[in-house]
Amino acid sequence: MGNTSSDLSKKYKKVSPVREVMSLLVRNKAAMAGLIFLILLVGVSLSADLLFDYESQVVEQNISERLQWPSAEHLFGTDEYGRDLLARVVHGSRLSLSVSFVSVLASLIIGGILGAVSGYYGGLLDEIIMRITDIFLAIPMTLLAMVIVAALGASTTNLIISLSLSAVPTFARIVRSSVLTVREVEYIEAAGAIGAKDGTIIFSHILPNCIGPIIVQTTLRVAAMISNTAGLSFLGLGVQAPAPEWGALLSAGRNYIRDYSYLTFIPGLAIMLTILALNLLGDGLRDALDPRLK
Amino acid sequence: MAEKTIEIKDLVVEYRTRSGVVQALNGLSLSIEKGKTLGLVGETGAGKTTAGLAVLGLIPSPPGVIVSGEILLNGKDLRALTDKEMDQIRGDAVAMIFQDPMTSLNPVMTVGDQIAEAIKIHEGLNHGDALKKAEEMLEMVGIPRERAKEYPHQFSGGMKQRVVIAIALSCTPGLLIADEPTTALDVTIQAQVLEMMKGLKEKYEMSMLMITHDLGIVAEICDEVSVVYAGRVVEHGTLADVFDNTRHPYTEGLFNSLPNIENQAEKLKPIRGLMPDPTDLPLGCPFYPRCDHAMEICRTKKPPKVYRNETHFVECHLYNEQNIGDKEEKWR
Amino acid sequence: MSNSSSPLLEVKNLKKYFKTPKGMLHAVDDVSFTIDRGRTLGVVGESGCGKSTTGRAILRIVEPTEGEILFDGEDIRSLGKDQMRRMRTRMQIIFQDPFSSLNPRKTVSETIAEPLKLNGIITDKGKRMERVAEIMEIVGLAERLYNAYPHELDGGRRQRIGIARALALNPQFIVCDEPVSALDVSIQAQILNLMDELQEKMGLTYMFITHDLSVVHYFADDIAVMYLGRLIEKAPAKELFRNPVHPYTQALLSAIPVPSIHNQRKRILLKGEITSPVDPKPGCRFASRCPYASSRCHSEEPQLKEIAPGHFNACFLNE
To answer: InterPro entries this protein is in (chain B) (predicted)?
Structure first.
């Protein structure tokens, strides 16, 4: 055939994967809404210091203005110490998002690698990894966190460590079971037959075909992390008062739920919208990454 | 003329999906006389299974829609029946066996109970009597009655297909629709099952619609054969008509695609191209894009039926009443 | 390179056992055969007879339990992981299921280019694209399908991708594991003709695994019949069809439905079904279904013996 290589590469140039996925994502309205919301949210939390001064607006108490319903002056109202709720929610987004994102990412990487190795190689290695994850699954997350905090002291870093540890087993299990299914499909055998090494097989053939359940689990986990952080903060194991954090705001507000429902409603809404946006984006991403759904 | 068990007239079925309207059946007609077996031959996507499901009223809806046509079972129009009346017909007057015996049985019920269940529903027997009849059925399909207490996983593939056949025959239906009943089985087991089906068919004077892609099986068990392409019968006749006096280029192509056991040296002559997209069928003859004899008229006009004799017809522009008898009879 | 008149593949006493909860499964049990250069050995048998496992064991996709595999004179069981990887560029496999044997997330060209890339055969991307386009043309895939995904294509085209992937490395030997079983007859004939042409053009040697006797009769030079992990008869294709000796081969041949209404052959119906090859009892594995079985068949295992030039048989009946 008269094709030269430059002809071919011009004719069949493959769009870069990122651009391809983006172009597909743009068509999915729900996923785009989620993405825009998340970008705004991250933008707000990054510029929190510019919007509200931490010392004077977030931490300092102002009893004379306590428990005011939302108004023009305080858009989200004030809490029981007279602090502006909007300022606290905005600053709280920093902690909530960073703690949950970082711990999910950490547990995804650790759990993902453990699960992939365990599922692909099987045998004794699989046995050992799975029994260890079983042990971790059997320990209640709160207890685990208490042990870690007792050993290392209460801090945001230790909170992230304990949250990550608690999620590693779930990720390991999910990735392992997907890997087990995909590993049996013939194209994995075919990859071995054309000389692919284990690493190529795992990262280029198996994991891309497990992406669906992994993405779903990741978005759900972020949601769980936000509420777990709240639970731990409530026990005094997580974020320390008076630092604002969505879960902590929510639990602080519950004493006033009858008369000042905005104190629980607003942080609750923030958590819910974030989770919703993540789920929409996650679903859209999963579909955009699947060539069969084009 | 003999009594017809089933008669389908000009059946049009569409699957209306998001990606387009799949024209599954485009005026399919067939009929089976009492005690006879009709082979419905065609490739994947030709509409064979849809035809079988239509008779049982089991076309998934949505997306399936019966647009027009008649389905007459023993002279009664099935399309006019209510769901409840249809339930009574299924299993009683018509039964169907599917390709995969592995998935047609309930894994947590004993084989005997599964056969008995069908008998209870249709014959109103109590459990004990139904179970006794179930054991008789098992014996009839060549499985010792003691095995009625066992579960499907304890049976091999061929045995499972026998159980499925026993369930289908438990209420002595007048018509059995068999959708590729032996495709999942090994050849020696297939031979056993076919032999058994042949015997049962004669014993019960049952009519049978044999849906298959295998012309060898048709030669084995059928009396007549309809070749289906893109939802229409393009050639129909007795075995002698179709096998020895093949007229339609598609039927010809099917025969030429098969390796010939008697003559190894002969090179395979495949049909070129692919089945047409069922959402976008050609205007004229659906086979013309793949046909070696295609003419201008094939592109624009649907071919009419041309009869070679009382039993044999083709839908192809190559033939008319004068020339259809011309071709010499060939010995295959 | 060793002597070109010696067989390309020589398998000696190949065994593959699997441990199962019920006992040791003898998937392939003491199988020996040779395949000459440029020839096709058809391996037939029913499900569970070990034909696919034999093919995979030869490529060491599953590791054989015992036995010797000489490829072009070289004992491939003694090769290390990396050496074996290099060896696989000379021996390839085509799979049965054109749906599950292709990674759904890779385009046609990515799938065909992968072996070239992984084995460092063509490192330049542009050159690799050229080569992929060339291979696509050889197997009859239109160039416009370059960036298509497998799910957009029909079974026949997908099988062509599978063949292209195997051909990319320019192998000498290809194990074809039921390559046409999942295809419609008209498409099946297209693929068989393609494989035939490729063999002629590239001097390929095939091991053609199938359950379909009419296909193997058309396609193979020699045929080996397997039953429950054992090779029970091997002969040139014509000879085997004209003069089948083993009772199982006879039954198998007679069971093929022939698309003709003038078929005079008498059918031999076997009793019972294939048993499982888990901890097989001593004696001939076909004995429980064999119409001619004697007490000897239940106690002693018949060995493969040459009964006529090139015709091997493992049955006491014809000794």
So the answer is: AAA+_ATPase, ABC_Ni/Peptide_Import, ABC_transporter-like_ATP-bd, ABC_transporter-like_CS, Oligopep_ABC_C, P-loop_NTPase
